[in-house]
Each structure stands twice: as structure tokens, then as C-alpha cells.
Amino acid sequence: QLLSNDEDNDIAKLTFSAPWWDDNRRPIKASGFLRGQKVPLHQRDLAPAVVLLAQDDKGQYCLSSTSIIALFVEPKQKWLVNKEFSPDDKLDSASCSIQLALHE
């Protein structure tokens, strides 16, 4: 599934933890992380990301927010996996179906 880049799906506002960070460092907004990776300001909201979407049988989201699984860092030409990602921790109920979506 592809997500469009609009206000409802603003990846830059979601949090991200780099895989190399130590365990007691808190996640930061994806836009702040991308800034540290030298991604230009006008490209941060457009960064490709793989996100986790979980919906119940009524189409309601089971997550408090969309979760970033991986983020593409253009200057390094690499996908980075979110250290905080764990599908078991994110689900509010067992009746949710999980979908992966590419945000571009």
C-alpha cells in the first residue's frame, strides 16, 4: 500500500531511533533525525519511509499513531531500521490486522 504525502501522513512528525543509538537515548522526530543526516529541509517531509498500519475489522486504527519501521536517508543512500520498532509492543488488541505501507 502506498501512502500519499499529506498532512494526515506527515512522516517528519513521527519519532525515530537510529539503530546505533544506546538504549537510554529517547527517540526524536524523524525531521530532526534527517536534519542530523544532512537531508535538506525541503526534502525531509518527502523522505521515503516504511510504516506500520494496524486496523481492526471496522477499519479503525489500533495504534495511537502510525509507526515508522524504516526510513530512507538520501545522502547515505541507505534504509535505516527504527531501533524502537517491535510489532508486539505496538498493537492495542489481538484483533488488529497489520499492513506495511511505503510512504513517498
Overall description:
With 104 residues, the chain is of the alpha+beta class. The protein has helices spanning 30-36, 41-44, 87-90, and strands at residues 2-3, 15-16, 28-29, 49-55, 67-73, 78-81, 97-103. The strands form two sheets. It has a five-stranded mixed β-sheet with strand order 1-7-4-5-6, with no helix packed on it. It starts with a strand and ends with a strand. Residues 4-8 have low confidence and may be disordered.
Quaternary structure annotation: single chain
Quick one: overall form? globular
The percent range for strand residues is 25-35%
Helix content: 10-25%
- Helix-strand sequence: EEEHHEEEHE
Number of strands: 7
| N-end to C-end Cα span | 11 Å
Secondary structure category: alpha+beta
State Rg.
14 Å
Strand order of the largest sheet: 1-7-4-5-6
| Helical segment count | 3
Task: Give the overall pLDDT as a whole number.
Answer: 77
Poorly predicted tracts of residues: 4-8
Major β-sheet, in short?
Answer: 5 strands, mixed
